[in-house]
Amino acid sequence: MQATFFELPIVQFLLILLIIFLTIGLMSKKIRTKRKPDNSPPYPSPPSYFVGHLFQLTTNCRLKMREWRHATGDLYSLDFAGRHYIVVNGYKTFKEVFVHHAGSVQGVPPSFINDKLQEHNKGIAESNGQNWLEQRKVSISILRSFGLGTNLLAERIQNEVCVYLDELSKLRGAPLDARLLTTVSVSNIICSIIIGRRFDHQDPYFTELVSNMGKATKYFANLPLLTLFPWLYHIPGDLFNARKLVSIFKEINCSFSLANIERICDDDSSEKADNFIACYLSKMAKKHNEGKPTTMDKENLIAVIRNLFIAGTDTTSGNILWFLLYMLHYPDVQEKIYQEIVSRVGSERQITIEDKPNLPYLNAVVMETQRHACVTPFASPRVVIEEFTAEGFVFPAGAHILPNMDSVQHDPNVWENPGDFNPERFLDKGGNLIQPEEFIPFSLGNRVCLGESMAKMELFLFFSAIIQRFQLLPEHENRLPPLDEIYGAIACPQPYKLRFIQRNN
Ligand code: HEM
Question: pLDDT per residue over 13-35, tens digit each?
Fold first, then answer.
């Protein structure tokens, strides 16, 4: 039997690919010379034939982009296979583009995933226009009714923190890679709001779902490439993890979102209303009954649940994992946090959200962890809806924008020695917390993170409770795990183990 194109052995396949690239490349001289308008931001280096700057981006995107910004300025253009991207760097330029021109850049481009899920303009993070506006507004209003930004939510988080600490205590100081435990805990918080229930740390269904989600955020690194070349999906051996990525998203849609929507629809009990899904369904029914125009429907609900579940998990747990790692590297910082807790709260009673203003050093560590780790090196890519000019450059309609968060969090013009982990940068001489306006880990503008207040509570309550109860030590004395990251949609530390030693033993 003859092999089809997609069944060829990998070497042959790659050779054919190379020939196709070269042929198109030679034919595309014209495309190369006229890829972006002259008055839009300059290229940092000449784009290569056909692929543009695609292969000039090394595996460490952050470093390459820092280099390009240094050489070119806060706004530069890139060409990815003929598609024009503008990279936005630095706080001042972020504000100019995402606040002053918010309306022109609030669109997000459709991605390869939406195509494969056959989900067009659904949910929050991947939708546009009236659909995005309504889904975002409804979601925020429901989350508020569950205490977003209030003590009600803090109590929910605290309960989960207690379970987390008890699980850590059970280890009796044995080394642990805390990734799964942390991610399940954080995920349980948003999960308890969305579906009205939490899962046990040993639950096989939930632990698998959460680990798969972690894999998806890693595979996400290939999303821009897959969106440019959707046919990579068919490459034998799933070289770009495209099929795995799609199947994880389908699994979340099906076994989590849809299954829980159906369960809640069938549930007649009084507990029914105590979750996000039930509130959404009731608001949706009300709109339909009143004959009001609405984008609220089941497909949107499925996508919204996925957005909240994914966006609300690895971002927060990634920050906690970085915090644990920094505490191993900077034991003096760890000790200082502990001493502050002992003197202002004590070591017996549980720390609550009301203690937040009395623990400035801990707050500074939370902020420095977010700044230094910068778990979202890029905010959501945008597409220019309407042409505008910023900082003397034209942003043509249809151009794509990459908001480079790393350039803000690690800007040497704002932060002294940005590569150093130094919580004191967020304290004044009197030890009071300061809030530099350039500190924007949740981005800014119309699409600013909608879970900001929830995430801030989570980070404060997890960090404080961990240090109050445990001393953190590396797995091996005198051998620290590296501060290297796994690059993906969320930058998490490489796997490492540490020991949680119960204090006051
Ligand atoms: C430390 C934790 C978190 C960080 C660092 C973070 C960061 C971000 C960033 C940078 C964006 C992109 C904003 C933009 O494109 O301008 C974003 C969007 C988003 N975040 Fe978060 N986030 C965190 C936690 C959460 C939580 C807990 C939730 C859920 C309750 C959440 C839900 C969302 C959603 C739904 C969006 C899309 C907003 C839109 O497109 O309108 N995030 N987040």
Answer: 666 666 566 556 555 544 444 57
Q: How far apart are CA 424 and CA 433, in angstroms?
A: 9
- Look up tokens 């069944």; give the residue: 7
- Does the beta carbon of 41 sit less than 6 angstroms from any atom of ligand 1? no
Q: Are 329 and 468 in contact (CB under 8 A)?
A: no
pTM confidence score: 0.92
State the closest ligand 1 atom to the C-alpha of 136, by its place in the atom list counted from 1.
Answer: 41
Top-confidence residue, 233 or 96:
96
Mean pLDDT of 337-344: 97
Q: How far is the CA of 378 from the centre of ligand 1 (A)?
A: 11
Ligand 1 center to residue 502 CA distance, Å? 33
Residue 124 CB–ligand 1 contact under 6 Å? yes
Cβ of 121 below 6 Å from ligand 1: no
Does the annotation place 449 within a ligand binding site?
Answer: yes
C-alpha 414/C-alpha 424 separation (Å) is 15
- DSSP code per residue over 315-334: HHHHHHHHHHHHHHH-HHHH
User: What is the rounded distance in angstroms from the CA atom of residue 393 to the CA atom of residue 381?
Assistant: 19
What would the pLDDT profile of 428-485 be if each residue is shown by its tens digit? 999 999 999 999 999 999 999 999 999 999 999 999 999 999 999 999 988 999 999 9
Residue located nearest, by CA, to atom 18 of ligand 1: 449
Q: Whose CA is nearest to atom 7 of ligand 1?
A: 442
DSSP state letter for 482: P
Q: What is the mean pLDDT of residues 275-293?
A: 94
Does the Cβ of 223 fall within 6 Å of ligand 1? no
Spatial contact of 216 and 255, defined as CB atoms under 8 Å apart: no
Amino acid sitting at position 499:
R
